[in-house]
Structures
1.
Amino acid sequence: TLKLARHDWQLVQATLLAEEGMEAIRSIRDFGWQPNITSLTAGTKYYLTFDSLNNHWATTTVNTFVDGLFERSVIKTAVYRDGSNNIAASGTLDPSTVKITVTVAWFSNNATTTKTLETYLANLFGA
């Protein structure tokens, strides 16, 4: 029972960290699409850090474990549109939309467990 309760606690915390990661990426986007989202290399694993000097979220390639246990990473993937302007596996690159995957991983019971959230992020403000 204790082992299960411990695992459930970690799953809940990982889920909250993944949701916070999505909110952080939206906040980063709101500080400027070009310098903060377009500049990220597609397929590269990034980590989130809170810049207390400027009071906002930022990305880094340096891994920092949350609470010494959880690895939270963010990956940007390019988005393509077909002839009907629908998201597709190939077609025309959409420079104003990216797919964001936030993954939280932790080691428990001799195995790595992950919680993943995915969403599409759009350049809402045109900057």
2.
Amino acid sequence: MTLVHSFAPLASPDATCLILGSMPGKASLAAQQYYAHPRNYFWPFLELILEITPGLPYAERCDALLQRQVAVWDVLKACTRSGSLDADIIESSIVANDLDGFLRQHRHIKRVFFNGAKAESSFRRHVLPGLPQDLRGRVQLIRLPSTSPANASIPMAVKLRDWQQLLDGHEQVGRQE
């Protein structure tokens, strides 16, 4: 078992939506980059949906998200697990990130998207009970299918269709060039 820690949030002060994962996997932790596994669909999906030039260096992809007012973080600050899979997380070891503080600092965020079921369930169990009513009423919570290569039961076209919700009713997200 290994104790792992998440990254700092990727966010600009004017972010209008937040994508939450559960905890970075081994490839991401080794690279110190969100969604670094080469078979994870996170970056290809966002490049397509948000019209970001494919294959940019990591820092430029992050900048493109910030320009499109998209924030990225993880529900978990720390946890113990044996591998990279969400199923490997020891539930009793979970320490949640300060999403209350984050949402207070990023007052424009109206929608929180979960990258998979574990991110959503962890949020609902470890974060939501402590969120004050003003924050609960301000944000819409939306679960998306995990972009992880371990989530092979859902066809890629269905995942991509679901991820298109990033654009629904959100005029600010999209090309800013």
